[in-house]
UniProtKB/TrEMBL annotation:
<dbReference type="InterPro" id="IPR008995">
    <property type="entry name" value="Mo/tungstate-bd_C_term_dom"/>
</dbReference>
<keyword id="KW-0067">ATP-binding</keyword>
<dbReference type="InterPro" id="IPR040582">
    <property type="entry name" value="OB_MalK-like"/>
</dbReference>
<dbReference type="Pfam" id="PF00005">
    <property type="entry name" value="ABC_tran"/>
</dbReference>
<keyword id="KW-1003">Cell membrane</keyword>
<dbReference type="InterPro" id="IPR017871">
    <property type="entry name" value="ABC_transporter-like_CS"/>
</dbReference>
<dbReference type="InterPro" id="IPR047641">
    <property type="entry name" value="ABC_transpr_MalK/UgpC-like"/>
</dbReference>
<feature type="domain" description="ABC transporter">
    <location>
        <begin position="4"/>
        <end position="234"/>
    </location>
</feature>
<keyword id="KW-0472">Membrane</keyword>
<dbReference type="InterPro" id="IPR003593">
    <property type="entry name" value="AAA+_ATPase"/>
</dbReference>
<keyword id="KW-0813">Transport</keyword>
<protein>
    <submittedName>
        <fullName>sn-glycerol-3-phosphate ABC transporter ATP-binding protein UgpC</fullName>
    </submittedName>
</protein>
<dbReference type="InterPro" id="IPR027417">
    <property type="entry name" value="P-loop_NTPase"/>
</dbReference>
<dbReference type="GO" id="GO:0008643">
    <property type="term" value="P:carbohydrate transport"/>
</dbReference>
<dbReference type="GO" id="GO:0055052">
    <property type="term" value="C:ATP-binding cassette (ABC) transporter complex, substrate-binding subunit-containing"/>
</dbReference>
<keyword id="KW-0547">Nucleotide-binding</keyword>
<dbReference type="Pfam" id="PF17912">
    <property type="entry name" value="OB_MalK"/>
</dbReference>
Length: 357
């Protein structure tokens, strides 16, 4: 395993600056997820680490060696694509060992590596089958196995589960997490799926427009988002937002708009709050409680049945507010529902810069 260090990276494709002055450190043995919407540059960054894209400026180090201009085969990496890219005429064993055979690896070593990967990925009964006789999940396991047998320093995954159904994605997510623990290898994984990111990552880099917005553990990114984009990108349903202003009176700080007012004096402001500052108050649906004596109220417009809980959508003065209802029957449609915000779990962002206050 090896660390990956990216310094002041610039990537230009078709005359467009896709990534500009990006810095990223991945520690040896770490599982890092690049998360963001389509077109944010995450796959471009991954392919550049792999050596498939040219660098306009900056550097890429793998294992302490400058690999900015090294050929892909010399970088000590294995790449798993979204498409399985298996050879249809070869069985599973030959698909997994193809790269090793081309490189002249001794037969005994090939057998050892294929056996090890097959054991890890539960592919032993399938070694003599061809891709046409495999399910989508099995094909992706083979593609991952083909990467594992290379025993690379760094494993790169480009949305490998996006072609699978929800059940298979869940199963393979769990297997990838276990695989990382077994191998202890450095892994960088690209996805637009926040569930994949939250469950797989040791650290995650949330990207937007070629820029890393926040790089931290999943828990910190979720509970302490650095800006409004990160706050709204993570979470399902998304974070509820209310616009207003701060009022500072000595040690007291209030957030207020025409429909609500909250004491936010205990909020951990990064800088001293300014009276009159326009800001956005955010609260996640799980921190909105529907209770009889709530200080606020909205008209119930929709109930989403989620099995072990309900998601209530309330019309609050023209804005939609989502809240989670656990272990209770949902109110009738169009009912007026009182609710309360957990003031200990509020988030505040500057309205102009959208950065966390």
């Amino acid at each position: 395993m090896a660390n990956v260090a990216i310094r002041n990276l610039q990537i230009t494709l078709g005359g467009n600056r896709v990534i500009d002055q990006l810095n990223l450190d991945v520690q040896a043995g770490e599982f890092v997820v690049l998360l963001g919407p389509s077109g944010c540059g995450k796959s471009t960054l991954l392919h550049t680490i792999a050596g498939l894209n040219d660098v306009s400026d900056g550097s890429i180090e793998i294992g302490g060696r400058d690999m900015t201009w090294a050929d892909p085969k010399d970088r000590g990496i294995s790449l798993v694509f979204q498409s399985y890219a298996l050879y249809p005429t070869m069985d599973v064993e030959k698909n997994m060992s193809f790269g090793l055979r081309i490189n002249g690896t001794p037969k005994a070593e090939i057998a050892r590596r294929v056996q090890r990967a097959a054991d890890m990925l539960h592919l032993q009964p399938l070694l003599k089958r061809k891709p046409a006789n495999l399910s989508g999940g099995q094909r992706q396991r083979v593609a991952i196995g083909r990467a594992i047998v290379r025993e690379a320093d760094v494993f790169l995954f480009d949305e490998p589960l996006s072609n699978l159904d929800a059940k298979l994605r869940t199963e393979l997510r769990r297997e990838l997490k276990q695989l990382h623990r077994q191998l202890g290898a450095t892994m960088i994984y690209v996805t637009h799926d926040q569930v994949e990111a939250m469950t797989l990552a040791g650290r995650m880099a949330v990207m937007r427009g070629g820029v890393i917005q926040q790089y931290d553990t999943p828990a910190n990114v979720y509970h302490t988002p650095a800006n409004l984009f990160v706050a709204t990108f993570l979470g399902s349903p998304g974070m509820n937002l209310f616009r207003g202003r701060l009022a500072v009176h000595g040690a007291s700080v209030m957030f207020a708009n025409e429909h609500m007012q909250f004491d936010v004096s205990a909020y951990p402001f990064a800088d001293a709050p300014v009276s009159g500052q326009a800001c956005v108050l955010g609260v996640r649906p799980e921190d909105v409680s529907a209770i009889n004596d709530g200080a606020l109220a909205g008209r119930l417009t929709l109930v989403e049945e989620m099995g072990n809980h309900h998601v209530l959508w309330l019309d609050f003065h023209g804005s939609q507010v989502a809240c989670i209802l656990n272990g209770q029957d949902a109110p009738a449609a169009e009912a007026t529902v009182a609710f309360r915000l957990n003031t200990e779990r509020l988030h505040l962002f500057d309205e102009a810069s959208e950065q966390r206050l």
